[in-house]
Design brief:
This protein is α/β, with parallel strands linked by helices and 363 residues long. The chain has 12 helices and 13 strands. It has 2 domains: 7-46 and 272-362, Aspartate Aminotransferase, domain 1 (Alpha-Beta Complex), CATH 3.90.1150.10; 49-268, Type I PLP-dependent aspartate aminotransferase-like (Major domain) (Aspartate Aminotransferase, domain 2). The chain has helices spanning 22-27, 49-54, 69-79, 91-103, 119-126, 146-156, 176-185, 240-249, 257-268, 272-292, 313-322, 346-362; strands at 36-37, 86-89, 109-114, 130-135, 160-164, 190-194, 216-221, 234-238, 297-298, 306-309, 325-326, 328-329, 338-341. The strands form 3 sheets. It has a 7-stranded mixed beta sheet, sandwiched between helices. It has a 4-stranded antiparallel beta sheet with strand order 9-10-13-12, with helices on one face. It has a two-stranded parallel ribbon with strand order 1-11. Helix 3 packs parallel to helix 9. The longest helix is centred in the C-terminal third of the chain and has 21 residues, at 272-292.
């Protein structure tokens, strides 16, 4: 008889993500390089050339620095926080699972907003936590019902609360006042705010100003804004006690030398983000307007991606993929009528609009 794994794996459903499914591409006879990927919400204008040129100098015949000292120092300078308030990880997904491992025990209660990033639920269930969902509805403009969330927290006294800000996939962004209200209601609860896409929000408020709170963990990705998804790089910010606890459970050398070097080089390129994000916001607004003219309903967003009400999302995605265009089917988010689109370069966006027009004319 085979050895049984821990019981939490018995009904565990892996999270679904954007990005190409390599096996699907092969099955459909598609060449990956020829598919335009609107399913991944990364900066289409990167990575910065300074990173491509500088990685040749990365030292790969020695173990990486477990503490990521150089990168943490660079982040400290950029963010205006102490290096002791920063922990670098192998992408924000590693940090999500690390936070769950450190703070959640079997039968703890964790609150998760739906729709939201699927890895929050996977990480919580792996730890045996009990999940309570708060559903955000399309008919309410996908706005978070703050009063309802506060009541839920006070009633169930959860050990943890996950939310992305801006939300993935809706693009809704919570104000500092909203987050403070949640923190005030969650004195016995670790509030994990995932800011993977906050760089794309125009005039975003600075969450690091709240690091004195003893129940706040902020997660950041460096793969989205600097276009480094293949390297896996992210970081957490919190008070020193939370960071110290996470450090105890972190695997050694979890971030490779090349990723650490790329992070430092990215932070040294002070112009790249300003220039590319301005272009991307213009492309987003232009694409939203053009898709709206095709009688497809779009959802207002503050992120670098937006939802489109497409009817049957699986069929909509499949038709576009036949034309070598990939969008994110949001069925796994509980939104089977919606797809998520992340704008790309002007030429690629024009190809998407042209293809949608052609498909409309055939329907």
């Amino acid at each position: 008889m085979p050895i049984s794994p821990r019981k939490e794996l018995s009904n565990l459903v892996p999270a679904t993500h954007g990005s190409p499914d390599y096996a699907e591409m092969e099955r459909l006879g598609l060449v990956l390089e020829e598919v335009i990927d609107f399913s991944v919400c990364s900066n289409p204008f990167g990575p910065p050339s300074s990173i491509r040129n500088g990685l040749a100098k990365a030292v790969i015949d020695k173990y990486p620095d477990t503490e990521a000292s150089e990168l943490r120092a660079a982040l400290s300078l950029k963010l205006g926080v102490s290096p002791q308030n920063i922990l670098v990880g192998n992408g924000s997904t590693e940090l999500i699972r690390l936070a769950a491992l450190v703070y959640f025990s079997p039968d703890d209660t964790v609150v998760i907003i739906k729709p939201d990033f699927g890895e929050y639920e996977v990480a919580s269930r792996l730890c045996g936590a009990r999940i309570i969902h708060l559903i955000v509805k399309p008919e309410d403009g996908f706005r978070l019902p703050l009063d309802k969330l506060v009541k839920l927290i006070r009633k169930h006294k959860p050990k943890g609360l996950f939310l992305s800000n801006p939300n993935n996939p809706t693009g809704q962004y919570l104000s500092r006042k909203n987050i403070e209200t949640i923190l005030d209601a969650s004195s016995e609860c670790l509030v994990i705010v995932d800011e993977a896409y906050v760089s794309f929000v125009e005039n975003a408020w600075l969450s690091q100003d709240l690091l004195e709170r003893d129940n706040l963990l902020i997660l950041h990705s460096m793969t989205k804004d600097y276009t480094l998804p293949g390297l896996r790089l992210g970081y957490a910010m919190a008070n020193t006690e939370i960071i110290a606890n996470l450090r105890l459970a972190r695997p050694p050398w979890s971030v490779n030398t090349i990723a650490l070097k790329a992070g430092v080089l990215a932070l040294q390129d002070t112009e790249f983000l300003d220039i590319s994000l301005k272009k991307l916001r213009w492309e987003r607004d232009s694409l939203v307007a053009k898709i709206g003219h095709l009688d497809l309903q779009t959802v207002p967003t503050q992120a670098n991606f937006f939802l489109v009400k497409a009817g049957n999302a699986r069929q909509f995605r499949a038709k576009l993929l036949e034309n070598k265009i990939l969008v994110r089917d949001c069925t796994s988010f509980g939104l089977p009528e919606y797809v998520r689109i992340a704008p790309r370069t002007p030429e690629e966006n024009a190809k998407l609009v042209t293809t949608l027009k052609e498909l409309n004319s055939k329907s």
